[in-house]
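Progress against Task 2.4 (sequence-to-structure conversion) is shown through the following example record, which the project officer requested during the mid-term review.
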Amino acid sequence: MRQRTKYKISTAILVALLLCLTLGYAFLTTNLNITGTTSIDSNTWNVYWDNVQVTTGSVSATTPTIDTNKTTVTFSAHLSKPGDFYEFTVDAVNDGTIDAMIENINTTINGNPLSNLPNYLVFSLTYSDGEEIKNNDYLLSEERETYKVKIEYNTDISPEDLPSSNETNTIIISSDYIQGENAIQAAKVFQLGDYVSYTPSKTSYEVGINCTDNNTDIFNPSELNVWRVIKMNRDGSIEMISEYTSNTAARFSGVAGYKKYVGCLNVLASQYETENYTIGSRHFGYNGQTEYIESSSKIISAIPWTCSTGDSCAPEQEEDLGGGDLLYLKDYNQVKNVLGTLQTKTASGANKDYWIASRVYNYDSWELEVTYFGQSVVVFGNSSVLVHYDIRTNTFAYYPVNDIRIRPIVVIKPSIKITSGSGTKQQPYQIAP
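Structure tokens generated for the chain above:
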């Protein structure tokens, strides 16, 4: 029988900003009542802070120090004017033999929830790559993760938000690590780019008229049964993109198509999930874009923005109104870096283009466009135009885009098991719940 004991370390609040890592340790005991000999491997628990680095440009401050137990980082910084900031990184290290996971991460200011942060301060705590630190994130044995902490004097404030006198704010970040509970076999074995055999459970999905422009289009999710590992998440889940695209095309046209484009692609991608195997999905390119644009006020304006998406006037700042986005670049760069190419074929071997969940406003031609990947490049304009405005006649023209496929991404569970295979194209990993 396994028992859990958690040891926590209390630290005094002595400085303007205090970052503490509280460690918990769950240990295993074995009681054997049957006569025999039991061999138990030795294990160690050793999670600590290491390697504090101050970011260039930070205000002068006391040098961050790590206490002798290596569980607390302490520093004090003085922010004197808007724009001043102090930022540093510190590594959470697991030098033990037992996988650790975050049971709870909590940040307080002056003993209160972080929601009480004054308007004149901006605070952020992320991993070094900008991803959110979450409960149940793993810190595997013999690995390290870099935290990034930043406190900034806000530049976007009104005079009444400014402090009337000098103030000292104490911020405490508590990150409780305990023994990892879930089996995460696959995350320890998989490598980026590995081939995985996974067959979605659905064999047929008929698209409704509210999604694409033809409710007779029928997709067969089970035809996509070869996938590639593109990301291992910190909670042990694994993101995989289909090696091939669907045989069936997804069709969109006009203002309605532009508004529902991203959401409908995600609906289609969700059909490739399977109970007990997956915990999520998205279409390639989706990164928080507005799935369904509600207002047509900008879209039906003759010239809603005075430059194109990605240019100086930044229509993408009104992405929710149809100004387009560059958010697809996260998936684009991830897949290209991992697989070396974005080119692929349909499940049946045809050379067909596939959608990217991203919209574009083209000022030069007054067009609302959606994005897809051609045989070698990202394409928008020409064959991906859904709405065109003719400035000479002050009229709109609406177009369908009919022959482009989908490429889903699924997220498989941390607990998924590998039953066979080596991760190669010839011998992809076989998985089971």
